[in-house]
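Dear U.,

Please find below the material for section 3 of the report. The protein was modelled together with LXAUTJHC; I have listed the sequence and SMILES used, followed by the predicted complex structure.
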Amino acid sequence: MSYEFRDYPDREMLAIDLANMIAGELRAQLDHSKRVSLAVPGGTSPGPIFDSLSATSLDWDRVDVLLGDERWVPETSERSNTRLLRERLLTGKAAAARLLPLYAEAETPEEKLEELAETIRPTLPLGVVLLGMGADLHTASIFPGADRLAEALAPDAPILLPMRAPGAPEPRITLTAPVLGGALNKHVLIFGAEKRAALEKAKGLPPEEAPINAVLDQAVVHWAE
Ligand SMILES: O=C1O[C@H](COP(=O)(O)O)[C@@H](O)[C@H](O)[C@H]1O
């Protein structure tokens, strides 16, 4: 497994550079395909990259945007990743993109799993994936110790799985490792010394202990303090 590690002087430079890279990859793919897909993380890190991307000129009306994972909460919740996406990415020039939802109104993700997966299937393999990572080495909602971890890591995993984990306050829904890892272009975004040290310590660990390792091959990791 090999990946490129890019170390930036600050978060602002990282956001501009990473947004440019993603836009360039989407443009290159649009030269050969009618539509392309872009999967992105939620959480606290990607907002500044979304701000840069949303201001970028691109044939956004040919781009399908989806989350790599969602917390099973409605968009009215502060914890909704979809809410972040609407507020910070699907605005400005990028408002023309099509959102493929990872949440639908229901008590549990199990009730909507098949329906949501079918909207994603035609977009595979994903064109560009941007992933976040927790200090516990989870990525998307593939957490160490999660109830369906082994299924999410299996080579024949389905597109989507529900996930419940000790570190996650609500049920989750997540794209699985083969779907995320099979993207044409992959980027991982991490901020801060703690996550950098965690990624360093993850070297050589099995994906059951370090789920990020299941998707890192050929990825570019972008880091700033
Ligand atoms: O819960 C989540 O966590 C990860 C990492 O989030 P961050 O706040 O530490 O950047 C994120 O990538 C994922 O999409 C999100 O649902």
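For the text of the report, you could mention the following: The longest strand covers residues 185-191.

Regards,
Y.
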